[in-house]
Amino acid sequence: MKGFSLFLAALYMNALLVDGRLAKSGSNKNDRSIHAPYDAFCLVNDDFAKGTLIINTPGTYKLCEDIVFDPIQNIELPIMEMYLPDFKVYDRNAYGLGFFAAIAISASNVEIYLNNHSIEQSEGHALMQRFFAVFELANSPFLKSVGPSQFVGNVEFESASNVGIYGPGIIGRSAHHGVHGNDNKNITIRDITFKDFEVAAVSLNNVDDAFIIGNTIPNNRHDVPIVGSFSAATQVSHYGKALKEMNFGMDIKGVYTSAAEVYERLVATIENVAYDVLFRNKGFINEKKHPEEYFLFHNKNSVVDGPCYAFVIHGKGPAVGGFGFELSDSSKMSSNIQIIDNVIENIKCWTNEVPAVVIEDVVQNDARGAILQLIKSTPEDNFLAINSDGTYKRNPVADMQIMTAYAIQQGLLNDNPNLQTVVNTISPSIVKWASSSNDVLVPQYRCNGDSMHHTVKGMTIIRVEDCEGFKISGNNIKGIENLSGEPFENCSSFHAGASKEDTSTQVGNVRVISVAAVTGYNTDKIASKSIIVSNEIKDVQGKSICGIDLQGKSDSCLIDYNIVDYSFMPEEGMEENFALRLRKFVDNSSDGIKAIEIGAHNEFDKSQIQILNNVLDEERMRRLEHLHRNLNIGNEWKLGGCPFGGR
Ligand SMILES: *[C@@H]1O[C@H](CO)[C@@H](O)[C@H](O)[C@H]1NC(C)=O
Ligand SMILES: *[C@@H]1O[C@H](CO)[C@@H](O)[C@H](O)[C@H]1NC(C)=O
Ligand SMILES: *[C@@H]1O[C@H](CO)[C@@H](O)[C@H](O)[C@H]1NC(C)=O
Ligand SMILES: *[C@@H]1O[C@H](CO)[C@@H](O)[C@H](O)[C@H]1NC(C)=O
Ligand SMILES: *[C@@H]1O[C@H](CO)[C@@H](O)[C@H](O)[C@H]1NC(C)=O
């Protein structure tokens, strides 16, 4: 059956081609693998000893051995400083937060052949450098004035175009992305095995002409030792060092405490984690030897505790808000995205909701943008930096965050690329509370954010949004598992995202293919629909699953020949699983090229189609309302996108 539909789909797609580039779709994958040119420039581990390999001129490269990116600069230093770049070699602005990539490409016409080798971040660097991509397609991971440091600064942001990264070969362990980029053009990523990435195999914002073809994902990373807040600890330690050198100090819980003491305790904490994870305890924090470290940072699910994807394509800027609602103008949206014939398996994720304490309507972030985390969202044993009686509870991270905030408020730290101060929002009242032994705080929590207060969105395996023209076809996706717990119950407000859809139509902890704010191809030559065709989705675990989800103001898309089979019978109370869902603002009323066309050849086994732009039947409406309390709020994304939204 499958072979037959694929054959039909291939015929169908050929009829739909707009640019001829897809001619090989549906053909034997082996025909496509490209062998590295004989004269390509050879890359070896030595090329990475000083840190990121910067490619800023056109050229053809190949890996000549397996690369492990582990740029230790000085083994004598504390572990948070071992990997710090040499700022005589690396730009202080772009590299202020460390080596964000193994290879940073900021030129046009660059081709890289993995040449049947692998390239990955080392375990140690992945522990210490949480924001990372094996390949960054620019000279900086963020556009000017976005992101936690003054990335770019006075240097111009330069993005790559006409880049090809070709397998066979492996892009392995990465604390965030396999390949990441902003504002790119003509990017081909083909025949690669991506594994052990934490956030996404490929993440491109505002890209025109991206071809993600014939890649294989056997698994995302399943041995993550720590949660996101460990990065808050390493980042804030750099402030501690500066404050120690200034002989700073303040009252904490009514007792004068020096910066040296707080800093040294934090360093010891980080080093205990690092030595357990990297040497003594093979991947985990030792609970018996280091109970406090374990309580603060242990990752009980061993997978990333924030948003997670296989492939994500997005409009301009980082994908940290909710799902998109409307197309941006053409300078900001992505176009011609082809995600074809990829095999994606065994993706497990955990959305770790981090309740963010709010003072006078402001979320309390530290100097690097991490949440000042008072509690965990789990019901038991959740007090991190507040006691059950409302008094401050000391811990090495919160102490350092608060001391840094106080020093900033005293005007003792000046904003600079390595120690920025402008991001800090920890208020004087929080500082006062923590410095007193018996002041009581009655916290208000804003929910639906992660440890950096990005909107939590659950799992999305293929996400395309803010995009004109895409083809998602021939992808085979199976073994998707939601490891998230229940939402935090005591929220006073919710993190808002961008979309304006109706709360009553909000479902979805797992989206397998999700497109939002998209339309068809609209070139000068010829207009045609975007397609979601011949994808196979199987074995998905969770409570609220959408196989294919169309969101936001979207139109001009053909959906056909897809197979969705979750491999379980819907149980009582699990009817909110859908094979295909068109949300409320998706335009299914237009005719012709603008129409959303649901073809007759989809095989949606045991699950259903839900089209929300017409009134739902009453029975289903009641179920949705039951699942999503507090429906009286007009903006669904006030309650966040998902998975914890719409409560
Ligand atoms: C790639 O490497 C694997 C394992 O080392 C080997 O079995 C295979 O033949 C190689 N493939 C090519 C095309 O060189
Ligand atoms: C796209 O990039 C690839 C890889 O560098 C190059 O071979 C190709 O010519 C480019 N296509 C266009 C239309 O520029
Ligand atoms: C919920 O929050 C309110 C106000 O912040 C607080 O008074 C109450 O004790 C909290 N309840 C629980 C169960 O945490
Ligand atoms: C799936 O995730 C959501 C939140 O992300 C959670 O509330 C729910 O309990 C999870 N379901 C399962 C079956 O794990
Ligand atoms: C649009 O949605 C309505 C409501 O479910 C449905 O009856 C109709 O067939 C859909 N139109 C198209 C063109 O799919």
UniProtKB/TrEMBL annotation:
InterPro entries recorded: Pectin_lyas_fold, Pectin_lyase_fold/virulence
Protein's UniProt keywords contain Signal: yes
Keywords: Signal
First and last residue of the signal peptide: 1-20
Keyword ATP-binding part of the UniProt annotation: no
Name of the featured protein: Endo-polygalacturonase
